[in-house]
Amino acid sequence: MDVRGVTLKVGLSATTTEPGLTGGQLDGIGVYSGALLRELPHAGIDVDAWSFGPPARLSVGRPMPRPFPLATLRDLVLPGARQHIDADLYHATDYRIVKMDRPVVATLHDALPIAHPEWCNPRLRGLKNWLQARAARKADHVIAVSRYAIAELVQCFGVDERRISVVPNGVDEAWLDAPAADSVAATLARHGLRPGYFLTVGTLQPRKNTGALLQAYLGLPPSVRAQRQLVIIGAAGARSEATVAQIRAARQNGENVVWLNRVTGAEELRHVYAGAGVFVFPSLYEGFGIPVVEAFASGIPVVASNATSVPEVTGGAAIDVDPLSVAAIGAAMLELARDEALRQRCIAAGKVRAVQLTWRETARKTAAVYRSVLSGGH
C-alpha cells in the first residue's frame, strides 16, 4: 500500500486528555496525547479522537464502541473478534489497547511497573503490568519515546525490537518565546512566588526523588535559601506520603518551600517556569522527562539526573548529577545560582536542544511511522 502524499485518517486515543476523567490535571501521557491531537494535522494526518469512559464525561474524543473492561473481556473470550473504527490506523497512546480490524500503533512510555514495582501503587500494579504486556502483543508496531526505553520494552514486555521506532517527546513551539512579563508577574504574585526560585515539576512519586532535592535545598547556605525559594509543582502520587511529610515539615520549620499541588493549565505552568532561576530534575527513572525540555524552552538552566533516559534528553545541555548524591545535587544548584557565565552557557545550550525537541517534530516523525506501517515498511 503506497501512502506517500495521501492524507491518512488515524484514530487517536484521547482518554488521558479528558477533563471529565482527569480533573483537568494532565500527566505526561495526557500531555503527549494532547500534543499529537494538535500537531498531527500539520503532518498531513486527519485525526479522529476516541476515548474510553462514560459518554457523559467525554468532551475531547468520541466514545469507543465498547467500554475498556468489556472490550478487554471480549478480546479474551473471542480471540478472533476485532473492534471496528472508521480509520486507516489506530494509535493507542496509553495501555488501553484492544484488538482492531486495522493496524494498531501503541506508544509504550516506559516499563516502570515491571522494572520497579516498589515505586508503584500495589493495588494497580498487577493489573497494569498485565494490561501493558497484552497491549504490547496486540500492537502491530510500538513507539518508544527514547532509545533507553527500547531495552526495557524488549525485556519486560517481550516486544520484538524490529517493531519499535523511537520518537522523542517535545514541547510546544510557543514555549520558545518568552511569555508576557506582566502575565508572568501576575501568576507569581497569585502564588506568592519571587522570581529566581529553584523549581521542580512532576507528580510526587518515589522515582521523582523530590525528597533528595528537598534535602539538597535545605543544605544550601542560609543566605541562598533566604533569597531563593524552592518551588515544587506536582500532585501527590502513589507512595508519596513520606515526601509530602518532608515538604510539610520544612514549611512548618519556616523554610522557603512552596508546594503547588495543582496549576490551572499549561499557560500558568509556563509562567511558573518563566519565573524560575534554576530548574532541578533529580529523577531516578524516566522514560523521557518532558519537564526538562519545558525548562530548556523557557530559558532556565537545568540540573538533571544522569540516570536512565534523562542524559539522552538533555543532550549535554544540563549539569548532569548523580541523583543518589544529595551533595552533588546541592553543589550543582549552588553553582547555577552563583555562576552567571555558567548559567548563560546552560541557557543557550538548552534553547538549542529545545528547538530540536518540539511537538511538531514529534508529530512529523509519528506520521512517518504511520505511513511506514501502512506501506508494510515495519
Automatic annotation (TrEMBL):
Q: Which residues form the Glycosyl transferase family domain?
A: 195-351
Q: In Gene Ontology terms, what is one molecular function of this protein? A: glycosyltransferase activity
Taxonomically, which superkingdom? Answer: Bacteria
Which keywords does this chain's UniProt record carry?
A: Transferase
Is Transferase there in the keyword field? yes
The keyword Lipoprotein belongs to this UniProt entry's keyword annotation: no
* SUPFAM superfamilies, per the entry: UDP-Glycosyltransferase/glycogen phosphorylase
List residues of the Glycosyltransferase subfamily 4-like N-terminal domain.
27-173
Q: Which PANTHER family match?
A: GLYCOSYLTRANSFERASE WBBK-RELATED (PTHR46401)
The protein depicted here goes by the name Glycosyltransferase
The uppermost taxa in this organism's lineage are: Bacteria, Pseudomonadati, Pseudomonadota, Betaproteobacteria, Burkholderiales
